[in-house]
Amino acid sequence: MSAEREVLTWELFGTASRALAQEIADSGYRPDLILSIARGGLFVAGALGYALDVKNLHVMNVEFYTGVDQRLDMPVMLPPVPNAVDLSGAKVLVADDVADTGATLKLVRDFCADHVADVRCAVVYEKPRSFVKCEYVWKHTDQWINFPWSTEPPVVRRENQVLDA
């Protein structure tokens, strides 16, 4: 990983999410629902939901990162896990901020695969090392990314929480 950082501002996120939505629309894909990977994917899913006129948004909580370029051995789904019957037969767009290693996206995509009509992934950034190649990507980078929602430290720190980047 490069020592340089990719910096995404709120303004640039607006541009990125709109371009990502346009790429999805231009492909002809019309998702029935957007499945957000919390936490970074919440912002992406909300922006895509408005731009693609999809009101059916779901959230999957996955813990993987513990710090800057530090992660658990494998991603872990945290409760509440979406009920697979709610996804049954749907065209699902999985939204996240970054496909870094691809492990989180693979976990979520595999969770959906047996229940949905079609599952595709949309991310703001994709790194070359990601073994999941997303259908929709705004930008490719090999740098660590400073997202506007996670560059400032929390206002409060909760006990027994893994520290984020």
UniProtKB/TrEMBL annotation:
Start and end residues of each Phosphoribosyltransferase domain: 6-152
GO molecular function annotation: glycosyltransferase activity
SUPFAM superfamilies in the record: PRTase-like (SSF53271)
Transferase found in the keyword field: yes
InterPro entries tied to this protein: PRTase-like, PRTase_dom
Matches recorded under Gene3D superfamilies: 3.40.50.2020
UniProt keyword terms in alphabetical order: Glycosyltransferase, Transferase
Name recorded for this polypeptide: Phosphoribosyltransferase domain-containing protein
Annotated organism of origin: Actinomadura namibiensis
